[in-house]
Amino acid sequence: MAQAEYVQESLAGLDPAVGGVDPALPLYATTFVVVDLETTGGAPDGGGITEIGAVKVRGGEQLGVLATLVNPGQPIPPFITVLTGITQAMLLPAPPIEQVLPSFLEFIADAVLVAHNAPYDVGFLKAACAKHGYRWPNPRVLDTAALARRVLTRDEVPNRKLGTLAAYFRTTTQPTHRALDDAKATVDVLHGLIGRLGGHRVDTVGDAIEFARAVTPTQRRKRHLAEGLPKVPGVYIFRAADNRPLYVGTSVDIATRVRSYFTAGEKRARISEMLAAAERVEAVECAHSLEAEVRELRLIAAHAPPYNRRSKYPERMLWLKLTDGPYPRLSIVRDLSPTDTAYLGPFTSRRAAELAAAGFHDAVPLRQCTHRLSLRTITPACALAELGRCPAPCEHKITPEEYDHQAAAPFRTATASDPQPVVDALLARIDVLSRDQRYEEAAVMRSRLAAVLRATVRMQRLAALTGIVELAAARPAARGGWELALVRHGRLAGAGVSPPGVHPRPTLTTIRATAETVSGGHGPVPAATAEESERILSWLERPETRLVEMSSGWSSPAGGAGRFRDLLAKAENGASHQLSTERS
Question: What local confidence, expressed as pLDDT, does residue 378 receive?
């Protein structure tokens, strides 16, 4: 029979919520429903099923049987009749699939679905549910054909056909191309394969499903590293033989997340290389997901694990600041000093900082030369002055007061409060370039506008949080109680969870008494990395989070950069033709 291509998505995950079956359930305690279909041989389009046979088993004991012919509502090809012995006359009085599905779905509830060449059978069942309005329960699926490919060698069986495996395991029922007989034969094959899994250290249903998939020898050899880990929020650290951290990650369920590294769903080459070098996994339990995310960031920054790509070097952040002197200019620097009063950042790369600087240079007449200018000595002007793109302070053609008003003050205003003049100037240039059909130059200007807005919006959001000496917030915990966070100057100073049914105030008092002492400082991120403060902001801004206490008000400038978020989104999406109308 023709087999339609079908992707079995449910095999990719190990979430206990899928099908209601815990992947850690031992195989001997797992309820399996072994199913086989007979069809008209077409593609899974919601019909075509002529017979369903299903057997429910657990611990080697048969619990139930479901078998029925199904009227497919279409003629049966002659070669199907020859193959299965099912005739058109046999199917005329049979119920249609929409009448069979309710009983079948109830039969497979809270069980692992097993089939030989499962994608084919599951594909027909899912298509039938979709066509007739039934919700597919998305059970865990175990494919005996795939499992046989992993367990049996070519020396033992020449192929993995059901008939061949039935002969090898000497099943009590032989396959006959009838649904119930084939399902019963598959039950015996399943039990035979499970008996072979013990030597591969496969004891649970989740392990069996993943073992059936194509995992690498390294994943199979190192999968014991995932044993014994807690099923709680926290951070996990893969360590080498010399105890060096190789990779740091976070999850709301450490055990499930680490186990996923040893499944076929993990295909990243660098992770495969990391697993080969890993010798143990260390778990750091956390109160809730926010604490786990923050601890992950701090561990990555402290150890720079070779197989982590992001968050490794927070000290490499860059700033765009206005220099001192009578004719200040923009300078990209690594650090801010307490005397710096006009700056923008932090930027994650020099390219991002240069793009924002180019945006300001397009909007206001800031000088771009790096000379140290004197109020007494004239310096020869550069080409930008000749092109009219610089007011030539080097030749004293503009007074320091006029220069500050025209060039420096707009930068200070844009970064500290309102970027409207800069935005208007850039939008006006985009309009001119678009009208002249200079679309490539307009796109460049649009990317500079996006860089300016992205940086100003980010910095003002950070500054609003980090200016608060202490903030306490709570969020309902999934299992009752409250997740609590104590934030000082944008840094997570303490975290905890109050028990269900208990007032959270005593827990918060304990957290405050044991929290980290955090001193403020200069700039929008005085006590933590920008990424940590942004993670905290994301947690605080969720609808379910409640602000409990604050040492001062949490506010942003009324005319600040935040009101340009829609314009930023359009600029980032490349909608330059819509930008000219977005002035506020």
Answer: 85
Q: Render the burial of 511-529: b for 16+ CB within 10 Å, e for the rest.
A: bbeebeebeeeebbbbbbb
Reduced to 3 states (helix: H, G, I; strand: E, B; else coil), residue 427 is: helix
CA distance 154 to 151: 10
State the CB neighbour count (10 A cutoff) for residue 385: 18
- Expressed in angstroms, the distance from the first to the final Cα of the chain is 64
Q: What is the CA radius of gyration of the chain?
A: 33
**Token code pair at residue 186:** 């598959």
Return d(Cα 2, Cα 60) in angstroms, integer: 33
Q: How many residues does the chain have?
A: 584
Q: What 3 state SS string does 158-174 have? A: CCCCHHHHHHHHCCCCC
Helix (H, G, I), strand (E, B) or coil at 473: strand
Do the Cβ atoms of 525 and 536 come closer than 8 Å?
A: no
Give the whole-angstrom CA distance, residue 192 versus residue 317. 59
Beta strands in 394-457 (DSSP E): none
Residue 328: is the preceding peptide bond cis (ω within 30°)? no
112-115/31-39 β-pairing: parallel
Q: What one-character DSSP code corresponds to residue 95?
A: P
What is the SS3 assignment for 218-256? HHHHHHHHHCCCCCCCEEEEEECCCCCEEEEEEECCHHH
> What is the set of active-site residues?
177
| Phi, psi for 109 (deg, rounded to 5) | -60, 140
The CA-atom distances, in angstroms, between 452 and each of 179, 311, 329, 415, 441 are 66, 23, 16, 9, 17
Rounded to whole angstroms, the Cα distance separating 7 from 266 reads 17
Beta strands in 23-156 (DSSP E): 31-39, 49-58, 61-69, 112-115, 141-143
φ/ψ region of 364 (left if φ > 0, alpha if ψ in -120 to 50, else beta) reads beta
Tokens encoding 539: 């947690």
| Core vs surface per residue 410-419: b (16+ CB within 10 A) or e | bbebbbbbbb
pLDDT tens digits, residue range 11-60?
Answer: 333 343 455 688 889 999 999 999 999 999 878 887 899 999 999 999 99
Residues 6+ apart with CB under 8 A from 421: 363, 364, 410, 413, 414
Contact at 8 Å (CB) between 73 and 96? Answer: yes
For the whole prediction, is pTM greater than 0.90? no
Q: Mind giving me the DSSP string for 257-276?
A: HHHHTTSTT---HHHHHHHH
Low-confidence ranges of the chain (pLDDT < 50): 1-17, 575-578, 580-584
Half-sphere exposure of 47 (CA within 13 A, CB side): 8
Q: What is the pLDDT of residue 19?
A: 57
Residues near 446 by Cβ (< 8 Å), separated by ≥ 6?
A: 430, 571, 574, 576, 579
Give the strand pairing for 141-143 and 49-58. Answer: unpaired
- CB 276 within 8 Å of CB 262: no
